[in-house]
Amino acid sequence: MNVAMGQYAVSRHWQENAETIISLMRRSHEGGADLLVLPEGVLARDIADPDLVLKAAQPLDGPFLSQVLAASRDNAMTTMMTVHVPTQGDKALNVFIAIRRGEIVARYDKLHLYDAFAMKESERVTAGDRIPPLVDVAGMKVAMMTCYDVRFPELARALALAGADVLTLPAAWVKGPLKEMHWEVMCTARALENTCYMVAVGECGPRNIGNSMVIDPLGVAIAKAAEAPALVFAELDPARIAHARDVLPVLANRRFAQPELNNN
């Protein structure tokens, strides 16, 4: 599978973000990508206005996604991103969507909300209550996770046991002491401990680190972006997964049952 990581700084204006995404989709398709992964919260962002995620939220049939879906109709490339969608109680859902040929082919509502490091995502966002589905892309099983989810190894393990070959992680990873180290360590750990590929795509800009990366099933970084906007390609090889699971059979050797989702 040829994967593209579209790292960019999200604007406060959804029209500008739609144009950026459509350009990244075109360039990724021209580059032979089967899968394009974009950052978290691509509809609108402003570090000076944290309520923008609520004010700018749109339904999945709104004008933002309608434009993006229309741009995806003419090819079989799968594009993944997260957007904020209005919900009950004056909040939004942080919805991870996979689109292909003008349709939404999979959806996941973010489970773990970022109530950490003096931030409180749950003030504006309602948590999901279901483990994400797997998406078939170019003969591989692709799993969906969102940003803070990477700090919870149970989710990645549940997805690996369900058959995932690739973990995808759109993120808006906030800068701060040790935060880049946390990002690299945990993205690498989730790949290595589950012998899966990890495709982690971070928003860049004044608040967030960028630093998108592809980690292979033995913990090797095979592609990386820095702190600036970038479109980075990588090849994911099923034979590498088979080799990793042969020499490091952690999934077969485990002594614990499959993790269960707690909705309490």
From TrEMBL:
Q: Which GO terms describe its molecular function?
A: hydrolase activity
Q: What keywords are assigned to this protein?
A: Hydrolase
**CDD domains xref list:** nitrilase_3 (cd07581)
- Family matches, as Pfam families: CN_hydrolase
Q: Where is the CN hydrolase domain?
A: 1-238
Family, according to the entry, reads as follows: Belongs to the carbon-nitrogen hydrolase superfamily. NIT1/NIT2 family.
Name of the protein this chain belongs to: Hydrolase
Origin organism of this chain? Izhakiella australiensis
